[in-house]
Design brief:
By secondary structure, the chain is mainly alpha-helical. Helix content is about 70%, strand content about 0%. It has helices at about 10-40, 45-75, 80-85, 95-115, 120, 125-130, 130-145, 155-185. α1 runs antiparallel to α2 (about 45-75) and α1 (about 10-40) packs antiparallel against α7.
Length: about 210
């Protein structure tokens, strides 16, 4: 692998850093879009198109992750082997932090493949499986902050806030909005037309789900 003449840093290291950041960006965008779809913040009429984008973002993140791992293997300084980039804990350098990225990658692969078998496993199991996206995102974020040479100090905090903020907001919206929607959809008692006094809405018994 050639070495940049100006700095003496292997080209593979620059490729690994860039590919890792791009992979995390696509993973984050996929998580954002998935949460936005589940909260119904986006138009239902475009769900099919948005779902396709959701898959595309995840697969693109995985392709960049493969490039990230391949560049690390080719780096003549880091001495990462194939096992180090596919098996958590086998990296010769900071194995725990590197292992979190490896686990995040396997979770992302599982989620991407789940799109292809969604009908076989059923919508309910597929939705439960998709909770793993939170784990993949958290592990990938921790991996980037702990190992990213471009994310030290204040830049790392800003990076984490930009990535994590929408995830937290959308997650809370996902939890709270269904309850509000259910109350809005609850049927109201019919208005009495036989001359009897109508019961005030505040005094009516709640409708059973």
């Amino acid at each position: 692998m050639s070495v940049l003449a100006s700095t003496g840093v292997p080209t593979a290291w620059y490729v690994a850093r860039a590919a890792g950041l791009v992979a995390f960006a696509f993973l984050t965008a996929s998580v954002w879009l998935g949460l936005a779809m589940s909260t119904k913040l986006l138009s239902n009429r475009r769900q099919k198109t948005l779902f396709a984008w959701h898959q595309t973002l995840m697969w693109t993140a995985l392709s960049m992750l493969v490039l990230h791992g391949a560049a690390l293997i080719l780096d003549p300084v880091m001495h990462f082997g194939l096992q180090a980039v596919v098996v958590p804990g086998l990296a010769p350098w900071r194995p725990v932090a590197v292992g979190s990225g490896v686990v995040a990658g396997w979770l992302a692969l599982t989620l991407a493949v789940s799109f292809q078998v969604r009908r076989r496993i059923g919508q309910k199991r597929w939705r439960l499986l998709h909770y793993a996206s939170f784990g993949a995102f958290a592990l990938a974020l921790g991996h980037a902050i702990n190992l990213g040479t471009d994310l030290q100090g204040a830049r790392g905090l800003f990076f984490a806030a930009v990535a994590l903020g929408p995830v937290l907001w959308l997650a809370f919206a996902r939890i709270l909005m269904p309850r509000a929607s259910a109350r809005a959809r609850a049927p109201r008692a019919p208005v009495r037309t036989d001359g009897a006094a109508a019961v005030p809405e505040a005094d009516r018994a709640p409708v059973a789900a």
